Amino acid sequence: MSSTPTTPRLYPPQVLPSILSADFARLAEEVAAAERGGGHIIHVDVMDGHFVPNITLGPPVVASLRKATKLTLDCHLMIEHPDEFIPAFADAGANWVSVHYEACPHLHRSLELIAHHGMQPGVVINPATRVNLLVDILPLVHHVLVMSVNPGFGGQSFIPHSLQKIRHLAELRAELGLKYHIEVDGGIGKETITSVVQAGADLLVAGNAVFGGGQAEKNARELITLAAAAC
Ligand code: DX5
Ligand code: ZN
Prior knowledge:
By secondary structure, the chain is an alpha/beta fold.
């Protein structure tokens, strides 16, 4: 994995297996299979039943994952009041933490708090949230996560307008001379991965497409090959 100051985009783009679609009773095995298929960063969806209409997991599961793997843990917080939980995710061993623009009235403070705890801060926008709203905090983030479905569930269809948002973020990055990565999450699979990479994303979350059919290693490898071919 490499990244240079002039070309911040990762080559090859990274496929981030999302454990939301994994068998939670066999998480360590599922993560190991995705790693054998070439996954280096595991996407962990944290849902509270308030910000999104679903409940998943919290810091104790992240701590267990931390013991089971050395891979980077990318925690996507779909929760209200995320500041209250950031220290617990740091203690659990999270590496990257992203918070939703829509959940953070003091987004600047939330991002600084994540960095203060030694983690890489990311900001997430829902499908209805415009990229322009992020301009003032872009210098603070390691990654911007574009939701290409409404958050809460795996296995939904990719929203095509997300491609324009990815392009816009890539243009802004060049214009402002910044280095953030562009992550995309929701509906990424064999049919959509090429267009997402061509639009400028370098972190590609895939849940159902990796873990859905019970062949995580093979699925991850195939997606990574497609993503690399799209550059
Ligand atoms: C949805 C989550 C995603 C989810 C994506 O709210 O943020 O990370 O796992 O699932 P797929 O890849 O199946 O659309
Ligand atoms: Zn996610």
